[in-house]
Amino acid sequence: MQGGGGSGGTGNTGGDNCQSVMVSPTRSIPNVMFLVDQSSSMRGDRWEDAHAAVTGTVSSLESIVRFALTTYTADDGGPPCPELPTQVDFALDNSSVISGEYPMTYPRSGDWDTPTGESIDAVVASIEGNPPPAEGPTIIVLATDGEPNTCADPHNQTTAAKDLSVEAASRAHDSGFDLFVLSVGNGVSDAHLQEMANVGVGLARTGAEGNAPYWRGTDAQSLEEAFTAIISDSISCDIQIDKPFDDETKACDDPESDVRLNGNPLSCPSEWEPSPDADDFIRLNGSACTEFKSGQATLTAEFPCGAIVVE
Q: Which of 13, 18, 30, 308 is spaced 20 to 30 Å from 133 by Cα?
């Protein structure tokens, strides 16, 4: 969190010494891996639009999200296959590194393939080999403009290639990394996007358990809006505090409770409340949650005597 919320306090000691307590909130920091198709069909506007959307998203959220980037392709099945020409590790404030490593214009001539399934497996193995801090969820955001082929059959977009991609997305979820899919343009069928979206978050491929969202963008703005929507869902509005609640009703109802976002007081329970899932978390609601997810945000919290446990 930017400008984390205050220093610890003393208090709740009983009698005349009982004081209010300032707690220190800690933001959950998600880890987001962009996996971007570098097949030759991305050449031109699609590549440039995806580049603008990725770098714009990273620039606006880099202080609260650890971003990483991998591009993928192959040359007539390789070897190597998949080829991962650009690889940037997870980090906060990663905009300059990603912009420096990620070419603004399509970097190659010739024909390049789309081994999506093998590339998902490769990036999952890479994350597992060098995992980011476990302070928040790790997700993969796949951006591709076409249906896949494979290393073994690089010239055909077959049912087997789609199956391999869907199975790889399912394996990513099983490894602990939800995968979200976005089509750059209209080259990926709704049916394939839906199957990838479903298994990427652990639902049945067929939609029998309901359908997960997928995204499609046709220009830089719509792509960035889609990326922001995906990533916003991974930013939690449950914020850990360094001392647990002793009396949640008192914390919410007492007029001396003072929870502020960017200096503005929040009301309980409409804008904040003690989390029902844990006694050392505050949950932001409604517009407060939206503001908290939007970028730099300072949350402070002070509670009256008896509301917070202090040893």
A: 308
Whether 92 and 199 share a structural domain: yes
Domain interval for residue 257: 15-27+239-303
Q: Is the pLDDT reported for residue 221 higher than 60? A: yes
The answer to whether residue 310 is domain-embedded is no
CA dihedral 189, 195, 201, 207 (to 10 degrees): 120
- Kindly list the distances between the CA atom of residue 35 and the CA atoms of 71, 77, 121, 182, 251, in Å, as whole numbers in the listed order: 6, 19, 11, 10, 43
- Tens-place pLDDT, residues 272-293: 999 999 999 999 999 999 999 8
What pLDDT was estimated at residue 8? 34
Q: Which helix (H) or strand (E) holds 121?
A: helix 116-129
Check residue 18 and give its pLDDT. 72
pTM over 0.70: yes
**Dihedral, CA of residue 40, residue 41, residue 44 and residue 48, to nearest 10:** -90
* CA gyration radius, the chain: 23
Q: How far apart are CA 53 and CA 222, in angstroms?
A: 8
Please say which residue of 216, 234, 252 terminates a domain.
234
Q: Report the side by side order of strands in the sheet with 178-184.
A: 87-91, 66-72, 31-37, 138-144, 178-184, 215-217
Q: How far is it, in rounded angstroms, from Cα 119 to Cα 122? A: 5
% of the chain residues with pLDDT over 90: 88
Helix (H, G, I), strand (E, B) or coil at 207: coil
Contact 187, 146 (CB under 8 A): yes
Tell me what percent of the chain is helix, strand and coil, each rounded to the nearest 5. Answer: 30, 20, 45
DSSP state of 77: T
More confident residue, 88 or 305: 88
